[in-house]
């Protein structure tokens, strides 16, 4: 019986944690939509902006978004059509395209990120408590 009670606590903690994550993701999706972006477009812009170097490729975006390279290529094409990224052929390897943010997307991402950071600061105590429950 003690094992069942312990498992019930573990499942409750996991359930609560997943719920909190989903609530944050919903918040993020809604705010991206308010700025005319899909969640995936927002994620791509974040991946590009957060890249450790300026050499962002389709492969990097695919890896960060956990999607296939051809899907990342289509996503970049849509972002380019919106004026949010540039895509240029790499000088060292002409088979690769380098992706960069435009001033428009930098401004948009700055607004979205400020809102997201504010929400994460608000949620930090709850997430900390949930993670502590999982220990």
From TrEMBL:
Gene3D superfamilies: Winged helix-like DNA-binding domain superfamily/Winged helix DNA-binding domain (1.10.10.10). SUPFAM superfamilies: Winged helix' DNA-binding domain. InterPro entries: HTH_MarR-typ, MarR/SlyA-like, WH-like_DNA-bd_sf, WH_DNA-bd_sf. GO terms for biological process: response to stress. One of its GO terms (molecular function) is DNA-binding transcription factor activity. It comes from the Bacteria. Residues 1-135 form the HTH marR-type domain. PANTHER family: HTH-TYPE TRANSCRIPTIONAL REPRESSOR YETL, TRANSCRIPTIONAL REGULATOR, MARR FAMILY. This is MarR family transcriptional regulator. It comes from Sphingomonas naasensis.
């Amino acid at each position: 019986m003690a094992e069942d009670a312990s498992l019930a606590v573990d499942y409750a903690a996991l359930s609560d944690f997943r719920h909190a994550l989903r609530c944050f993701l919903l918040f993020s999706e809604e705010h991206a939509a308010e700025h005319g972006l899909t969640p995936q477009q927002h994620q791509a812009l974040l991946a590009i902006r957060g890249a450790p170097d300026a050499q962002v490729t389709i492969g990097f975006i695919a890896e960060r978004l956990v999607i296939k390279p051809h899907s990342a290529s289509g996503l970049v094409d849509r972002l380019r059509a919106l004026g949010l990224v540039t895509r240029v052929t790499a000088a060292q390897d002409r088979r690769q395209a380098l992706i960069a943010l435009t001033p428009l997307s930098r401004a948009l991402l700055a607004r979205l990120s400020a809102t997201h950071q504010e929400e994460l600061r608000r949620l930090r105590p709850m997430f900390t408590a949930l993670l502590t429950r999982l220990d």
